Amino acid sequence: MERRVVVTGMGAVTPLGLSVPELWAGVLAARSGVGPITLFDASDHATRFAAEVKGFDPTQVMDRKEARRTDRFVQLAVAAATEALHHAGLEINTQNRDEVGVFIASGIGGIATLSEQLEILHSRGPGRISPFLIPAMITNLAAGQVSITTGARGPSFCITSACASSAHAIGEAVETIRRGWARVIIAGGSEASITPIGIAGFQAMRALSTRNEAPEQASRPFDAARDGFVMGEGAGALILEDLEFALARGAPILAEVLGYAATSDAYHISNLAEDGEGIARAIRLALRRAGLTHGQVSYINAHATGTPSGDPVESAAIKEVFGPRGSAPPVSASKSQFGHLLGAAGAVEAVISILAIQHGQLPPTINLAEPDPACDLDYVPNAPRPAQVDVVLNNSFGFGGHNVCLLFRRYDPPVL
Predict the structure, then answer these.
(1) Confidence class for position 412, pLDDT limits 50, 70, 90
(2) Which family is annotated (predicted)?
């Protein structure tokens, strides 16, 4: 019999706050976490704003020496995982540690450390490079450090699929538990790419908004005046458990993960396939694997980055599966509030999806002043909305044509 998988804890470090309660308070306040870049001098960049994590102190979750040796993306991951474990009331000990895994994803990894060490290489020579460069830089070290910090000795790895990375991590963690290869997995993603080269790289692709005069209004998915996405940073983590294991230890059950599907467009290195076929196929597969019909979905948390080409494609794919406005469920874009967290986006948006179920509130799409005619669904504009939320579809897509859909459902305890 296939095991059921539930969510028992959540952690998040985002531009809206350093914890899940702070994130949710920012969502309900329809607040923007976007502002001028302070992590470096961006005065010579075409885009001079981003969604930064403010006030983060890594020594709250690791000692000062270890913090100096690790990249910011690793630090953020450890913080999110620590909060999630505390929320789940899960102590990893000698009795369970071999059955607890860690799947923490990252799209880019330690780009800040790499950039810093490249400058040292050019200015001071190879003999001055830090011995911690490689461990700080490679994408899997967020998963590795979370495993080391927590003592989890089950399966542990990093999935890198650009902006779909952490959604893939959650989905593959669910399947690993269903197979019986682990009882618990800490799953999520982390990213910290607000660096000169990170911003310049996306600028060169003409992917970023340049609305420097009003940065808090720059992330505007589905709006006719959108001009690109806003770079963000942060981390999100879920504690996923075998239902029987969770019930046996009296864990709080926040939601059940019902469906997961991943497809490829096989089309372009950075653009979505214009017909949205790969997205629609992923949604249908997730629904089929969950044993749900499209009419049972209460709300869709969209990938929706705010790029001119991407948002209409996702909207068209949603309509292909669910029908036009009036038939399709409400849709919203959390990136409107905290930008695009790249490899961490799927995990943080999964946290928001589960919070929507728990609290009966549809998260808003802020900065939606004039909807694009090609984007004609109900996007919950500018303010949260009370609603009965039983099933949430969470979309994530990545450069290279990666599409991931996750389905979360309200957990109903069995009637005894």
Answers:
(1) confident
(2) Belongs to the thiolase-like superfamily. Beta-ketoacyl-ACP synthases family.
Question: Does residue 166 contact residue 396 with C-beta atoms inside 8 Å?
Answer: yes
Residue 375 annotated among the catalytic residues of the structure? no
Unique residue bearing structure tokens 């209460």: 298
pLDDT > 90? residue 2 = no
For residue 102, the one-letter residue type is V
Sequence length of the chain is: 416
- 197-227 pLDDT, tens per residue? 999 999 999 999 999 999 999 999 999 999 9
Q: Give CA–CA dist 140/135, Å, rounded.
A: 9
| 84-to-13, 88, 111, 171, 360 alpha-carbon distances in Å | 11, 6, 25, 17, 21
Phi, psi (5° rounding) for residue 329? -70, 165
C-alpha to C-alpha distance for 366 and 106, rounded to whole angstroms: 26
| Active-site choice (158, 163, 375, 405) | 163
Domains delineated in the chain: 5-248 (3.40.47.10), 261-409 (3.40.47.10)
Round to whole Å and give the CA distance between 341 and 169. Answer: 15
Q: What is the mean pLDDT of residues 344-361?
A: 98
Encoding tokens for residue 164?
A: 């779909």
